[in-house]
Amino acid sequence: MSELxxxxxxxxxxxxxxxxxxxxxxxNKSRGKSPxxxxxxxxxxxxxxxGSIVNNRIxxxxxxxxxxxxxxxxxxxxxxxxxxxxxxxxxxxxxxxxWHLKAEKLPDGVRIKTTNxxxxxxxxxxxxxxxxxxxxxxxxxQVLIDILVATWLADSQTELSDLLDINQKxxxxxxxxxxxxxxxxxxxxxxxxxxNSLFRKSVVYAYNYRxxxxxxxxxxxxxxxxxxxxxxxxxxxxxxxxxxxGLSLCKNHHWAFDLGWFTIDDNYKILVAGDLxxxxxxxxxxxxxxxxxxxxxxxxxxxxxxxxxxWHRQNKFKA
Length: 319
Ligand SMILES: [Zn+2]
What we know:
By secondary structure, this protein is mainly α. The chain has helices at 13-21, 36-49, 62-75, 87-92, 115-121, 129-134, 138-152, 157-177, 183-190, 193-206, 235-238, 251-258, 306-315; strands at 27-28, 32-33, 99-102, 124-127, 219-221, 224-225, 227-231, 246-250, 262-264, 270-272.
């Protein structure tokens, strides 16, 4: 009977969004949901973004293990009861349909219990071809990272404040340990797309989803709102994702800030370039905000750093 035949799912981005939001993870009564799979996927997305994974072969490389451990230490509390180890998700992700193993040396029914065994018995993992093609697009990666972060690390307001802590923790690790990393890992870490995603979410949360310039606030839910977490000193150049290098800005004012049409002085007052031809019949014009204070986060520790604002005035602002 034809109605019993299951239609194959279209393997498009929407399909993989669902897969990423519905990973089969262990849910232990005392420990809670197991973070292994989301962290492994974040690590893989990171290495694809950095050009370290260029064909559809995910090796158990030192680089992957390093990133996995780093995210683990940042996301998972020390006393959570979860056991760190890339070998769990690397083999168990097979049950989620899009992740496959090439492992001819792995005997049937044998469970891999250490990372060394994983290296020894598994050649590599590979994704559905459709998924791997989709991952070549930075916007697609961003969507999937946001889903992993929102679903597994921040699906409520309370957890968003945890996210802010995680972001700060990642940055602290950065300062303390960056010198000791291999050059390759250092580049990956400085330009991490996952850190960038955490930064954006943390900044808009710190500003309560409001534009620091015009105070516009439109939200639909914690993952959909009209503001961006903007870097004051450019991320690509400085790799600085500390909250105090951020401003929450609506799309228009993010654009204008990046172009240097306005800047902010040491007293958090707006300075607008004098030569803007600015006509805004239904809202206040940009020039009208000249010398007004920006709206700031409730906590002073998240205020924009004066040194970063000075950099913006010197390097971006065209008075
Ligand atoms: Zn605005």
